[in-house]
Every structure is written in C-alpha cells, then in structure tokens.
C-alpha cells in the first residue's frame, strides 16, 4: 500500500513506514540505555494494543542478545468487565505469552485483580456502598488503580525504578489533553514524563499525538505479532458502535466519524447514563443477545432517586443533615438482599443463554460471596444469616457450607425476636446487635469494651423511627446553633 495519505494523520510528514521506523528507533534507544524494567498497561482495546504492538516490533528488530530487559504486560480485571471483552483480553494474553516465548521477546503477561475486600460486589452488596457517582466514585481506585499501582510499586521496589508505557492520547478527550499538557511541562524527553503518583516511575506515551484514525491505520496496516487479527478487534469495536457505523479514515475527509468512540469497561458502571457499547453489542449481533440480562440488571442499579433503598443513617449509624434533610447512607439490608438475589438470577440466565464458550461466565465469585457473608454477620450483625438462603433460592442448590459461622440463634429464633418486636424495625435491629455483641464476648476472659459497644448499639437505634431520629438531630443542631456550644 502506498505511503501517500490524503487525510491528515501523524504519518503525513514522513510517510507511514519512515514514521514507524523513527518511532521504533526511539523505543529501542530508550529500552537499551539503562536497566529500568518496562511495564505496559494493556486493556485489550485499540490504543493499548497499538502500544504493545509498537514496542514488540521495535524489540524484534534488536539482536536477541540485546533483548535482555523484561517488559511486563499488565491488565487489570475488575471482575465486572464486559464478559466478551474479558474473554478477548484473556485470550490475547495467552497468545501473547506463547508468541513472545517462541519469538524470544522478553514479554511477561500478568492479569491483575482487586483484593476481594475491594471488589465491586463486596462493597455494594456487602457493605452497602451506594452505586458509584460523580460525588462518590469509590470504584476506580479500588478496582483498577490499586492493583496496577501495587504491581508497579513492587517492580520499582525490586529494581529501583521503572518505565510505564501507556496508550493515552490527547485526542481521547479535552480533559485528557489538559492533563497530558500539564505533564509535558516536566517532560524529560519526547513522550517521556514523570509519574506524579509513583516515585521513580517514568511514563512513556508513544502514541499521545495519534488520532483514532491513526491508531486504526497502524493496526490494519501492520500484522499483529502475537497472532490475533486486528481486523477481529475492529469487528469488536463495530459491534459496540451504534448501527456498526465504524468507517476508517485513510483517504476520506477528516470530518468522517471514525471507529473508537465506543469505550469498553465495567458492565455495572453507573458513572454513565447508558452503557452504549454493551447495548450496541446486543442490538448489532444476534449471537450476543445473551448479554441482555446484564443491561436489565444494570437498570436496577441506575435508579435516579435511590433514597428509599438506603438507610437514613450513615455507615457508622449517625444521622447527618444537609439543609434539614438526612444524608442517606448505605443500602438497607432488604435492598442488599434484593441485589444479591437478582445478581445470582442474572448469572443463571447468562450461563443458560450464552454460547458454549461463555457458559462458564461468573458474575460473582464464591470468594466474594464468602466475604459478603462475613460482613453481613460480623460487621452488620445480620445474624439471620440470609446469604445461604438467598443463594439456594436463586441458584437452586445448597450454598457450600463454611466452618466458623455457628451461632446459637438460628432463623427460627430470629423470626421469634422479630415477632416480639411487633414491626418495630429499629428495636429489632438494636436487640439483634446486642445479642450478637454478647455472643462474640462469650468466651473471652476479659470483656473490656463490651459496655462501650453495647452503648454504641443502643445509641444508633434508640429512636422510635426515622422521622424521630431526624427530628431529634434537628433539635440538637438548633440547640448548638443557639448556644454556640456542643450538646
């Protein structure tokens, strides 16, 4: 194919092949000049694929004896990825590892996951965190940043410093362009900037000036070295684009829309109104209609006004007001149970309807279920132990029993306690917590802290109801305002 390009791309000035040769030379020089190990962030998308492919091509041109420094390819599985994309990434890593070994390219692949305590379902269903939003975006740090940063920190700790190669581009968004411009002020050389979050780590961004069209031009004009067809990646993007409108701009007007506006991410993401890529997959491909239950479940999370689903008290049990109204806290016990039941049923539907290769898709792991059960029993004092019951109802089989959760109060005893409270939910929750606290201290020789924990349990629930709690909090606030002192 000719190097002549009519529409504007970064390849115009030198031509396609000369531009790549110059960029390969830059990568080789950076790779050879010291012993810093490299880490490449890989998501399976077009940008990170382009970066991995560029670096692979550059190293392949070096004599084998010079390819002595390891390059770590890391991807972060949030455990709530779009199943189709997650399968694509996992398959890519397997092919990459095999091909790198055969070609003697020093690539090492790593699939990272968040700690179970940080997982999406443990925080939303276990602790009751409200769905992530602009004012409480608790997910990104836990699910993506921590796993990758911990890996990079370990590399830096072992070798003293490292280079992190990323597929970030200025054309992705105005915010990304502004952020990259700030980093350029401290730039060491072309495409290389300090990492302000991790000491002794430099960030290398070789395609920062590329457009979507440049990325696709590169991917479709060069062979994928680990044997995964980039045309298949293009098809994946087409499926995730409304009406599959995904033209490539090579010899056309620059105003033609290009492929790449679709972004793959967590299927549960509530930071956007709609998951357009997931919806487009279902609409564009009959074989992907099995993903529809994910869209249906996500709609349950995206309720605009979820106050009825949440406690009027904060996580620690205190009532906090803003303009006279309570700032609602975590999801209620009943709502968390609804989410869990529907999630398990959604998993059933996915596993039943999906093609054979996706039948093993799991939306929530047994490790996460165990952690949720632990939180419900030991932190929230929900000693009815409802998780095994919900699991059996939704999955149609007995929950795999775990040792260490024996309690003297079974479901019959808790039902009796609820009857005694005669519909007074706050009294029931207080008595339940007091019973659990006493049970936890039953074998201790020293019972220090018992009275304090009981007082705290009583203080959280001594109101008649939510209205009484809010009224009392307003009264205290008014007294503090009038006297200028704490009450």
Describe this structure in words.
With 487 residues, the protein is α/β, with parallel strands linked by helices. The protein has 2 domains: 16-127 and 135-244, Rossmann fold (3-Layer(aba) Sandwich), CATH 3.40.50; 307-483, no CATH class. It is 48% helix and 6% strand. It contains 17 helices and 8 strands. The chain has helices at residues 16-32, 46-60, 83-103, 120-127, 139-159, 174-184, 212-221, 230-239, 276-284, 292-301, 333-353, 366-379, 387-395, 411-421, 425-440, 450-461, 466-483, and strands at residues 38-41, 71-76, 107-112, 162-165, 192-194, 201-204, 321-322, 325-326. The strands form 2 sheets. Strands 3-2-1-4-6-5 form a 6-stranded mixed beta sheet, with helices on both faces. Strands 7-8 form a two-stranded antiparallel ribbon. The longest helix is centred in the first third of the chain and has 21 residues, at 83-103. The chain is elongated and about 80 Å long. Mean pLDDT is 86; it is low at 243-261.
Keywords summarizing the entry:
alpha/beta, 2 domains, 8 strands, Rossmann fold
Write the layout of secondary structure elements.
Elements lengths: L15 H17 L5 E4 L4 H15 L10 E6 L6 H21 L3 E6 L7 H8 L11 H21 L2 E4 L8 H11 L7 E3 L6 E4 L7 H10 L8 H10 L36 H9 L7 H10 L19 E2 L2 E2 L6 H21 L12 H14 L7 H9 L15 H11 L3 H16 L9 H12 L4 H18 L4
Parallel strand pairs: 1-2, 1-4, 2-3, 4-6
Antiparallel strand pairs: 5-6, 7-8
Helix pairs in contact: 1-2, 2-7, 4-12, 10-11, 11-13, 14-15, 15-16
């Amino acid at each position: 194919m000719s190097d002549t390009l009519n529409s504007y791309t970064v390849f115009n000035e030198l031509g396609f092949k000369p531009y790549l040769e110059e960029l390969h030379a830059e990568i080789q020089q950076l790779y050879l000049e010291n012993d810093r190990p490299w880490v490449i962030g890989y998501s399976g998308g077009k940008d990170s694929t382009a970066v991995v492919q560029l670096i692979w091509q550059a190293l392949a041109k070096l004599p084998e004896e010079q390819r002595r420094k390891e390059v770590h390819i890391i991807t972060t599985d949030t455990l709530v990825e779009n199943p189709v994309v997650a399968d694509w990434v996992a398959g890519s890593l397997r092919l990459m590892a095999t091909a790198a070994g055969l070609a003697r390219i020093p690539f090492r692949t790593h699939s990272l996951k968040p700690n179970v305590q940080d997982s999406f379902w443990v925080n939303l269903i276990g602790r009751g965190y409200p769905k992530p939003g602009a004012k409480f975006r608790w997910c990104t740090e836990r699910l993506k940043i921590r796993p990758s940063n911990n890996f990079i920190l370990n590399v830096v700790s072992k070798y003293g410093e490292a280079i992190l190669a990323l597929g970030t581009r200025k054309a992705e968004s105005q915010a990304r362009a502004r952020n990259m411009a700030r980093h350029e002020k401290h730039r060491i050389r072309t495409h290389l900037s300090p990492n302000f979050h991790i000491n002794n780590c430099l960030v290398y961004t070789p395609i920062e000036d590329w457009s979507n069209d440049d990325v696709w031009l590169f991917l479709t004009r060069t062979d994928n070295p680990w044997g995964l067809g980039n045309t298949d990646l293009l098809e994946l993007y087409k499926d995730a684009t409304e009406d599959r409108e995904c033209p490539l701009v090579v010899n056309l007007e620059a105003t033609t829309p290009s492929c790449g506006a679709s972004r793959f991410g967590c299927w549960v993401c509530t930071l956007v109104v709609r998951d357009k890529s997931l919806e487009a997959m279902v609409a564009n491909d009959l074989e992907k209609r099995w993903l529809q239950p994910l869209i249906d479940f996500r709609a349950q999370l995206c309720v605009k006004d979820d106050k009825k689903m949440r406690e009027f008290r904060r996580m620690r049990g205190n009532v906090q007001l803003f303009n006279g109204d309570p700032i609602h806290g975590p999801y209620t016990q009943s709502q968390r149970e609804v989410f869990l039941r529907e999630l398990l049923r959604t998993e059933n539907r996915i596993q039943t309807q999906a093609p054979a290769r996706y039948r093993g898709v799991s939306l929530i792991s047994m490790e996460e279920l165990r952690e949720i059960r632990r939180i419900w029993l030991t932190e929230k004092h929900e000693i009815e132990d409802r998780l095994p019951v919900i699991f059996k109802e939704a999955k149609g089989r007995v929950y795999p029993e775990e040792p260490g959760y024996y309690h003297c109060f079974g479901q019959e005893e808790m039902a009796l306690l609820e009857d005694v409270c005669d519909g007074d939910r706050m009294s029931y929750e207080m008595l339940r917590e007091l019973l659990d606290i006493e049970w936890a201290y039953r074998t201790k020789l020293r019972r220090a802290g018992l009275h304090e924990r009981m007082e705290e349990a009583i203080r959280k629930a001594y109101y008649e109801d939510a209205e009484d709690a809010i009224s009392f909090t307003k009264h205290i606030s008014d007294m503090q305002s009038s006297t200028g002192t704490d009450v």
